[in-house]
Amino acid sequence: MGKWRVLNSEYTFKSPFGNLRNDTCEMPDGTVIENYYVNEYADWVNAIVLTEDEEIVLVEQYRHPGNDFYLEVPAGKVEEGETYEEAIRREIREETGYVSEQALIPLGEFMVNPATQTNNVITFLMFDAKLTHVQELDETEVLEVKHFPFAGMGEMIRNKEITQLFTVSAYHLAIDFIRNGRDED
């Protein structure tokens, strides 16, 4: 087993949202793969946002590819020059109006889909969030802020009230952290 060698790489499409790249690759055994399409996206950040009252702050919005409304954790892409923490604090404030003075807890960094995509999703946990701002949404964002008891989120997932995968994985990462605390080195 070994890494593939890129013989040729061309962009099929470029946009501010992401790029589509067409690679020709050679496997270690010499097999050549033509037209291997790679989606290049910026890294994404998301967070479980918990209030002082142990409620989770979610956003509900219509997602065109899914043709439905989804309950999700606040999330967004990392903009040029931002750290992951700066990006998620900005996204939370813009989407929900919530901020916290507490340090964010990094829960993990994972490849979204390494078979076809280049980006990572970086997940955080925010405690003691307070509503201090009004929403500052992009012109194409229409979303409603919702609050639920965090203790009931697992049931919401089981009942398919929450079906967006990044939200489900963020919840499980947060529950694991809350139950087990930080790893002791």
Description:
By secondary structure, this protein is an alpha+beta fold. 19% of the residues lie in helices and 43% in strands. The chain has 2 domains: 5-40; 44-180, Nucleoside Triphosphate Pyrophosphohydrolase, CATH 3.90.79.10. The two termini are 33 Å apart.
Write the layout of secondary structure elements.
Elements: E1 5-14, E2 19-26, E3 32-40, E4 44-51, E5 55-63, E6 68-72, E7 75-77, H1 84-96, E8 98-99, E9 105-111, E10 120-131, E11 143-149, H2 153-158, H3 165-180
Parallel strand pairs: 4-10
Antiparallel strand pairs: 1-2, 2-3, 4-7, 5-6, 5-11, 8-10, 9-10
State the domain count: 2
Give the CATH superfamily of the largest domain: Nucleoside Triphosphate Pyrophosphohydrolase
Low-confidence runs: none
State the CATH topology of the largest domain: Nucleoside Triphosphate Pyrophosphohydrolase
Structural class: alpha+beta
Helix content: 10-25%
CATH architecture of the largest domain: Alpha-Beta Complex
- How many helix segments? 3
Mean pLDDT: 95
The level-1 CATH class of the largest domain? Alpha Beta
Strand percent estimate: 35-45%
Task: State the order of secondary-structure elements, H for helix, E for strand.
Answer: EEEEEEEHEEEEHH
Radius of gyration: 19 Å
The count of β-strands is 11
Taking the sheet with the most strands, its summary is: 5 strands, mixed
Distance between the termini: 33 Å
- Give the CA-based shape: elongated
